Amino acid sequence: METVAEHPAPPDAAPPKASGAASRVLSLVGELMIIVGGVLALYVVWQLFYTDLAANAVQEQTVQSLPWAYTLPITAPTDNGPSPQTIPDELKLSPDTAPDVKEPAFGTTFATFYVPRWGPKYIKPISEGTDRHKILDRLGIGHYVHTAMPGELGNFAISAHRTTYAKPFSNIDKLRKGDYLIVQTKTAWYVYRVTSHEIVLPTAVKVIAPVPNHLGAAPDNHYITLTSCHPKFSAAERYVVHGELEYWSPVGNGVPAELFSVPAP
Amino acid sequence: MIFPAIWGALPGPRWVRALILAAALAAVLWLLFDYVFPWISVTFGIQDQSVGETG
């Protein structure tokens, strides 16, 4: 820099116009590349950090805004603290008796989801629809439109992000056979148990069929299906977990004792 | 070239220019984070997790 500045161009040098234009173009290209690089870096920051913050805030607020949602405590009852009443055995009703529920309007949050395997603080809202922008990127878990509602005969199919956007299904690969998947709606509790998992291509809509993996078959049981992306940070495949309803119970008689179960490692 | 031109086009003393720049950067960041990036992510199917005909 200094040496250039201290030696002014001799009078017979090439006209400054030409070299000036070339260097201006070069510096313009260079600055544009700096800007593009900055925007790309910002995209990474946005995807990895900002989406979590933004979606977490929306989802927590959504759960808090549901007057019927059970929010506390989800830790095991302690000896000194007041322990929540749990549903008595005689009110654990058989799946066959689960009522049909009307599917809510698109975007409505109609249920909350609890998974003991995912820790005592795990409560996420379930909303109608699987639109990325309106549901999954903000509200968290989305219910596939026209699949069964919680408890119904058929397949209650839900989807959520595994990474970023508050990642509701972040630990979907940690679920083991027999783990509890608990759904609460305004009117009832539904306790499902994991039966299997699989990894499929994104086009495998058969996993959310009324009988999972049997397109066109008449529903024969009360299933739940979770879908998320696989591998992490990719959209190449889908991680799918299936479960079956163990029992259901109307709200108002306590909470499922399974909420406090500590899954075996 | 771009950066000196922007700096030169801004009015006022140094600290005013710096303030205007900071506000403009914040506005750009907000536009990117709340509108442009979500649109890109959804449009190009980055991080999809549902099953469907379109993937």
Structure commentary:
The complex is a heterodimer of chains A (265) and B (55). With 265 residues, chain A is of the alpha+beta class. Chain A has a single domain, classed as Sortase, Chain: A. Chain A is 22% helix and 23% strand. Chain A is built from 3 helices and 8 strands, in the order ααββαββββββ. Chain A has helices spanning 2-6, 16-64, 132-136; strands at 109-114, 124-128, 141-143, 154-159, 180-185, 188-200, 222-230, 237-250. An 8-stranded mixed barrel of chain A has the order 1-2-3-4-7-8-6-5. Chain A starts with a helix and ends in a 15-residue tail after the last strand. Residues 1-5 of chain A have low confidence and may be disordered. Chain B has one domain (2-43). Chain B has 55 residues and is mainly alpha-helical. The model of chain B has no long low-confidence stretch (mean pLDDT 84). The radius of gyration of chain B is 18 Å and the shape is elongated. Chain A binds chain B through residues 24, 27-28, 31-32, 35, 39, 42-43, 46-47, 50, 130, 132-133, 136-137, 142, 144, 159-165, 169, 200-205, 207-208, 227-229, 233, 235, 238, 240, and chain B through 1-3, 29, 32-33, 37-42, 45-53, 55.
The average pLDDT score of chain B comes to: 84
Q: Calculate Rg of chain B over CA atoms.
A: 18 Å
Largest beta-sheet characterization of chain B:
none
As a percent range, the share of helical residues of chain A equals 10-25%
CATH topology annotation of chain A: Sortase, Chain: A
How many extended strands of chain B? 0
Number of discrete domains of chain A: 1
Oligomeric description of these chains: heterodimer
Shape of chain A: elongated
Strand content of chain A: 15-25%
- Indicate the proportion of strand residues of chain B: under 5%
Distance between the termini of chain A: 64 Å
Count of alpha and pi helical runs of chain A: 3
Distance between the amino and carboxyl termini of chain B: 44 Å
Low-confidence stretches of chain A: 1-5
Mean pLDDT of chain A: 88
How many β-strand runs of chain A? 8
Largest sheet geometry of chain A: 8 strands, mixed, barrel
* Low-confidence residue ranges of chain B: none
Helix-and-strand structural type of chain B = mainly alpha
Radius of gyration of chain A from the CA trace? 27 Å
